[in-house]
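Researcher: Please translate sequence to structure tokens.
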Amino acid sequence: MRMTVQRLDWFVALPLLASVVMIVEIDPPRESILSIGPFVQGMIVIALSLVVCVSIAAASALDRRCSEEYVFQIMANAALVGFASTMLINLLWLIGVKVFGLPDLSSENMIGILTLCWALAYYWFRIKGIAQ
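Model: Translation complete:
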């Protein structure tokens, strides 16, 4: 079965919606039930990252079934825009923290910003094209 670009458009809508929830932080942080040290936490995060990353890489036939150069360029350009936007937003917010006393951004906020910027850039390039 060949993946169409239109199906990819619908797929990108999922992280776009999730990013809004992560930025707004609907569920405020709670006190931790388990008490684990930073080393154990780091090991858990590394192991989880490896398992999830390898699983997603193995299942990433999504882009290979839709492996047109056009789709690759859109995804790569959108990723660059997402990372650059996130870094700039973080820098501007840090200045706001120092100058105006804004609250710190949480990691959920940052991941939400990255995902939102990536998804918006993806749709921007889909609508406008990558040559413009």
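Researcher: Any highlights?
Model: The helical segments are 5-24, 38-58, 61-65, 69-100, 107-128.
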